[in-house]
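Slide 14.
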Amino acid sequence: MRVTVEGGRVVRIQGDPDHPTTQGVLCTKVSRYAERTYHDERVTYPMKRVGAKGRGEFVRVSWDEALADIAARLKQIAARDPQAVVPYSYAGTMGLVQGEAMAQRFFHKLGASLLDRTICSAAGGDAIAATYGAKVGMQTRFFAESQLVVIWGSNSIASNLHFWTLAQEAKRRGAKLIAIDPRRTETAEKCHQHIALLPGTDGALALGVMHELVAQQWLDHDYIERHVEGFERLQKRIAEWPPERAAEVCGISADEVRGLARDLGTTKPAAIRLNYGMQRVKGGGNATRLIALLPCLTGAWRQRAGGLLLSSSGWFKRYRNPSLERPDLLAGRRPRTINMSTIGGDLLHESSAAFGPKIEALIVYNSNPVAVAPESKKVVAGFARDDLFTVVLEHFMTDTADHADYVLPATTQLEHLDVHGTYGHTDIMWNEPAIAPIGEAKPNTQIFRELAARMGFADACFADDDETLARQAFDWAAIGTSFDALRERGWASLPIVDAPFADGGFATDSGKAQVDVCGLGVPEHVPNHESLLSSPELAARFPLAMISPPARHFLNSSFVNVKSLRSIEGEPLLEMHADDAAARSIDSGAMVRVFNERGEYRCRCEVSQRARPGVVNGLGVWWRKLGANGCNVNELTSQRLTDIGRAPTFYDCLVEVESCGAGR
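Slide 15: predicted structure.
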């Protein structure tokens, strides 16, 4: 971002035109970041709860009072068992400094429970790492040179705008664009072809494509022999999936399966931009492994504009400082791990030998779990416990902040120093503070420094300032630059070759892409927990599959309270195909009740071509307090986990829909 400041106030935010990926462009959300920063509902001083949890009744207190009381409570709990304290954080900021650098030092020193941060990408990330050895892939900029771009499980226009610019450039050069997504997204509308498969059937589609690649001899046998390990075991699985079977499972035509195979097998260079929408189902990990093998079977990796990208974050891991978060402060202790995706159930657990101590304290930063975690009825019940001590570092009074005992004002990206890796391109990004913190807001790092001092943590690492933390984040010599050069220019590129796997060299032990991974076996299609095939009795009662992609102008629950963006979105919506609406006598614009065994959610229905028959799209993630019945779409999602990565299955969800009737 390029930020213009006049008189100490931000007056303009734009994309940096000098950065080769941003090229002066920002998405609609981030272009409104000043509006978010100066929002009149911004939390600008510490607050202590005085009313019932969830009511949002607080009084202003000083930092001294808040930190003294928080430290005293944590000391009491830690004296019994420090694992009863749980950190809860994710990607509210993705900076290495304000994210976990000082926070993890604090929790490691305390001996608190560890957090398994699974809520977004763990299934796909672990699956890619199992196949390629790390979360690595082709370089984003070379998609512009591809002759085939398959956008699989991604609404790039809404969530990956800079990639979409490259896809459009490829299109102008004659490339074919294919979108694979249950929803007819803004991106799918602008591609040459849209394959609208059923949720959770991506693995079956990949197997059907492989069957046709074998049948038509579109395989690169030389690449497979030299750079793929275990293909002969995969062949047996492929033989079971002719296009007709794959098409039946996916709810598409056999010709669509054959056509996709022909495009991938005969077009050079061919590239797949895989994203995380497709892995939020029971079989998300296996499906990711199968899709990741497609460019290996066709030899697409031979060219720099061929291959696949899910995430580039593994490239950064090679240069990250593993000691930044100071795991040595655990001093040999091995605390239990809490999965952030099952926080609702975990907060309701009593102490046991298997579970460990009951959770007595929760420190939430960079996240809004009451809104974003699955099966939110359990999440709300857990956060409402009178005996749970909750501290929330926040910008606004979110659904989670409403349940806190203390809310501490945190800075935004415009107010603090940070350094970022990415998961799209391969540039390290510098984050210079543009303005002073508003009100009494403090960076996450400073809050944890001061809390550490109150706890009596005397280790020298708790005195590291933000610049020191940023300098420690990467091995600058290995990257081939310096910290000062990064700060001066604003970004630094990792030394990645143009075609990283043209001659194999995957990050696995053998250097080959892996088919039969130890402990995982040969990848297969794993049906959804909730589907007509796996749970016919449930499907008879709740016949519609529901996915819950983020509304275009929100970033999960961030930006929901930015008034200009919320005015564009209007209100929570459920998109439904005309056939499904007619069968239920539902008119477009009607209020509907969406329900299953876990709960119900009321919102406006939009009869839309964006929904395919049999699937409804519950656009999220609205704050619960803004919902028609005080909840959001996560009232319906479950805490079941994926086959790989222990991740949530947001898009593995059956529901029924009925009209609320006039005025309801």
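Speaker note: The chain has a mean pLDDT of 96.
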